[in-house]
Design brief:
Strand order of the largest sheet: 2-1-8-5
Order of helices and strands: HHHEEEEEEEE
Shape: rod-shaped
Largest sheet: 4 strands, antiparallel
Distance between the termini: 131 Å
Radius of gyration: 51 Å
Structural class: alpha+beta
Number of helices: 3
């Protein structure tokens, strides 16, 4: 058949032929085997490499950011030092500890109205007595305070009383304190270093 009709029929017949028929004619066993081998290599190559990597050969720069997640980290393998400040929640408050022994506070106010009268204790706590030899207070006859316990290892503080009992007596300064066993010898001195009779407050913290 010739003419336009024949040409139209020819075009229609060619369109009915499957487009992959040419590919099928050129597909051989070698092509198929090569494609299969490539697929196997691509799918198992990563596993092979992971199984044959030298120990400790993977560093931070080989790991893509964001690829390691919680499921990739072994439970219990991280420590507090692996987290930044504030990243870990605070644990529950611990049980309160047992109270410590209270500090021992021994104190007394010593009232001395001058060389003519003996000094007396007022507002004393665990200070038993004060010895004030007759006459002026001197370095060789100091006040001697007796406590109800050994104070040789205690910190002893002495300060002149704010209520100075004697008019015209120089203010006390730099008292000398010598603890020994259950006693403490106190010499009150004026700014020039001369011993004086004056009231004072003493406290021992052990």
């Amino acid at each position: 058949m010739r003419g336009p009709r024949a040409r139209n029929l020819g075009v229609r017949n060619r369109a009915e032929v499957p487009q992959d028929a040419g590919m099928a004619r050129h597909l051989t066993f070698a092509n198929l085997a090569s494609a299969l081998a490539l697929m196997v290599a691509l799918s198992t190559g990563g596993a092979y490499a992971a199984a044959h990597l030298p120990r400790n050969s993977v560093a931070s720069k080989q790991i893509k950011n964001g690829t390691v997640t919680g499921k990739d980290v072994k439970d219990g393998s991280l420590r507090a030092a692996d987290f930044g400040a504030g990243e870990l929640p605070a644990g529950p408050a611990g049980a309160p500890g047992s109270p410590g022994a209270p500090a021992t506070k021994l104190f007394a106010a010593v009232l001395d109205n001058g060389p003519a009268q003996a000094a007396t204790l007022v507002n004393n706590h665990e200070v038993v007595s004060v010895s004030d030899p007759a006459g002026a207070n001197t370095a060789i006859s100091p006040y001697v305070l007796t406590f109800d316990r050994d104070v040789s290892a205690c910190a002893i503080f002495v300060t002149a009383s704010l209520a100075e009992p004697l008019t015209g007596v120089a203010s006390a300064s730099s008292p000398l304190v010598v603890p020994s066993g259950t006693t403490a010898q106190v010499t009150m001195v004026d700014p020039s270093g001369a011993p004086i009779d004056t009231s004072f407050v003493i406290a021992a913290i052990c």
